[in-house]
Amino acid sequence: DTGVSQNPRHKITKRGQNVTFRCDPISEHNRLYWYRQTLGQGPEFLTYFQNEAQLEKSRLLSDRFSAERPKGSFSTLEIQRTEQGDSAMYLCASGEAVDGTEAFFGQGTRLTVV
Amino acid sequence: AQSVTQLDSQVPVFEEAPVELRCNYSSSVSVYLFWYVQYPNQGLQLLLKYLSGSTLVESINGFEAEFNKSQTSFHLRKPSVHISDTAEYFCAVRRQGGKLIFGQGTELSVKP
After folding, report:
1. B51: distance to nearest CA of chain A, Å?
2. Angle at B70 between CA B67 and CA B73, to 5 degrees
3. Angle B76-B105-B71 (CA atoms, 0-180°, nearest 5)?
4. Cα angle for residues A25, A28, A31 (degrees, 5° grid)
5. Distances from the Cα of B89 to the Cαs of A69, A72, A78, A85, A100, in angstroms?
6. How far is CA A58 from the centre of its chain?
7. Banded model confidence at residue A48, pLDDT cuts 50, 70, 90
8. If you ran DSSP here, which 8-state letter would residue B53 be given?
């Protein structure tokens, strides 16, 4: 297994366009997390799944953001009607639901909204 | 609600000097504690973690962190840093069954 894979690595989009990112977790992991990281800040929690169920969604996440994990494997994060404030690094992580286990992070997708 | 505070946003040190990166957390329940490291243009990597047992945990590259329940702290230390330790360090907490919550990060800059 090559770890958590995120695509694309970079995305430049015009304001108002929709974008979709993909995350492929480590295969045996049932937990999948999405975080957002802006310059000089720590990763900010967005949402997480256990298998295909979305267990929690941050209150900071507007209704323009939606995430899915349809078969409990890969996940997609879609941002509709992008705004300049959406520019950030979007991180995906996977892990096990067992208490005390860590999350393994992908390289991230850097979104720039122009 | 849980929160994590990293008290220093930037820590410049000279090579071979000791360093301490401070982390405090707030939680009303037992938590698991982690330190992640992010090298330039790379993803986050786990450095070390505290689950239970001995309050002092160590990483393979010479870092250690001590869990202090009374002070709700999990400070990261290294007795002698190298240039290659230059990176951003993030403290994180996770309660049972929950998600990771990160601090704001501390940029460690090691100068020759």
Report:
1. 6
2. 40
3. 45
4. 60
5. 30, 31, 29, 25, 20
6. 12
7. very high
8. S
**Element holding B56 (H helix, E strand):** strand B56-58
Hey, which residues does B32 pair with through a beta bridge? B94
Strand partners, B101: B93
In tens digits, chain B (112 residues) has pLDDT values of 678 999 999 999 999 999 999 999 987 677 899 999 999 888 899 999 998 888 888 888 899 999 998 899 999 999 999 999 999 999 999 877 778 899 999 999 999 9
Q: Chain B: which residues have CB within 8 Å of chain A?
A: 4, 6, 9, 32, 34, 36, 42-46, 49, 51-52, 90, 92, 96-97, 99-105
Instruction: Mark yes or no for CB contact A41/B97 under 8 Å.
Output: no
The two structure tokens encoding residue B30: 């037992």
Name the residue of chain A whose CA is nearest to B52's CA.
Answer: A100
Of A80, A81, A106, residue with least CA distance to A22: A106
Q: Is pLDDT of A19 > 80?
A: yes
Count CB-CB contacts under 10 A for residue B7. 15
Give the minimum alpha-carbon distance from A49 to chain B in angstroms, rounded to a whole number. 10
| Mean pLDDT for all residues in chain A | 92
